[in-house]
What does this fold into?
Amino acid sequence: MIAETLSFSIPDFRLSPRIDQIGVEERASRFTKRSIKTESKINGLKLALNMIDLTTLEGKDTEGKVKQLCYKAQHLHDVYENLPTVAAVCVYPSMVRIAKKALGNSGVKVASVATAFPSGQAPKDVKIRDTKFAVNEGADEVDMVISRGKFLEGDYNFVFDEIAEIKEACGTARLKVILETGELVTYDKVRRASDIAMYAGADFIKTSTGKISPAATMPVTLVMLEAIRDFYYKTGKMIAMKPAGGISKAKLALHYLVMLKETLGEAWMNNEWFRFGASSLANDLLMQLMTQKTGVYQSANYFSID
Amino acid sequence: MATKTISKKATTVFSSNGHSNGITNKRVEVLKTYKIYIGGQFPRTESGRYYVAKNKAGQALANACLSSRKDFRDAVNAARSAFGGWSTRAAFNRSQILYRIAEMLEGRKIQFIDELIKQDATPTQAEAEVNTAIDRLIYYAGWCDKYQQLFGTVNPVASSHFNFSVPEPTGVVAIIAPQNNSLIGLVSVIAPVIAGGNTCVVLASETKPLCAITFAEVIHSSDVPSGVINILTGKPTELIKYFADHMDVNATVYCERDETNKKLIQEKAAQNVKRILLYDNIDWNSSEAESPYFISDTQEIKTTWHPIENIGGAKAGY
It folds into this structure.
């Protein structure tokens, strides 16, 4: 059914390219050696800020916490004039309505995890209901997890069909597909899962839930960016990328932006095509921006906690 | 004839390297690399710069790291992360650790005396300075669990409250150590700050940095958690500004009489209203350099109003 709506044929995923581990790690480490100073640094920091999916995904989340986070999303640090907002607030389905209301018409999107996040261990109909619930509550974006167990068993058709069905359930909401690369063991599998997700209809591919360590790393993200590039060359369709988890320092965020720019180019350098899934990154970016502005090293004490 | 010339040449080359000749087996001395101490590690400065520490005769003693503002930034980060753990440790345990530093210093006395002599002290002065440094650490080890009683109070109030004030560590202290001596000044400013539960970043004497780094090695093997004490070498003129204006530093210590620098520190420190401590008229070798008031200098007083039940004519039990 999906194959009919697409203008390209589905490849044999067993033949996805193999990844040269040493090569990809070496290449990723090169991106950390670029020198980014003054004006480009400030622009980079603001861009990174604008790409954040400000996230709270905890069992202890309350209505108050989500409202607070939504306020933060719109007022990152009012002392600093003309700061961008973050791209989206990412919450559990039960909090979507609250977030949607709190964000109003600020332009900040609401993303919701769904499909029995973070494990994905639930029957398909439950996952679809979960997704539909989030969308009906007002989610602009849905973050789903793939069935890693089925994937590792080699049941690629199951994984593919599931993503396609969730995509259908999303309607107009954009779908982010979480591969949970920390559980996929090898770069080869990351590449294969990326290919499956993109051909099955993902709008974004995302590294991690943030619940498993390791979460996003630069080499893993590079593998996925290269998968996006190859997919774009083959089909002409742009797919967005979201590394999530473990990116908490401004410097690291700038390294990611360098990698994005040098792998996919200028077209991807905005929050429609690239996101950071993070919560503590925002404050570090703000501290660096203030350091650049005042010339004085900053203290976390002067920035809001969430 | 030709052979003779060659061998003579070889001899000349070797002797310019400080060896009597190229044939004897005189051992090449292995010189120590004096690296800075940040977060429990000994990195070189991120800037890759160095300077040569010399004695009065102009003889080169060592290459020392010329630390940059980024080294200072990293050190403050390390000190900030160490603060929570260090300040909440039992005072008694902090005392044990200070005592341990003294023990380790005692064990490496000879090395410190040797370094002090290299840096123009006489043998008698050198030994006296090391002894004083050890004793001073013991002195502050003793104060760790006692200054609270001295500076804490129970305050009489007119309402039904048990009202008491206790000293609490202020946080990260940035210290520009006394520049005129190598060891005793450094120890005298570090000990009261960490005894009181603060963490610190210290800039060693620019002209006499040897003992500071060797002292870092002593700290490293003395159960002091990483990040509690961080030691940099370099130029005060370059780094003072950052010691004073970093927003995550809670107090700045300066020990010289330079009025321009004092003014600079006072202006910069105003940004986050940090404490400024000017110890500009102290003989660090004398007993005036040790007192519990040096501990209280980096303490904040917290006052608590604790409601008490006061039923009928009964009096409060305190």
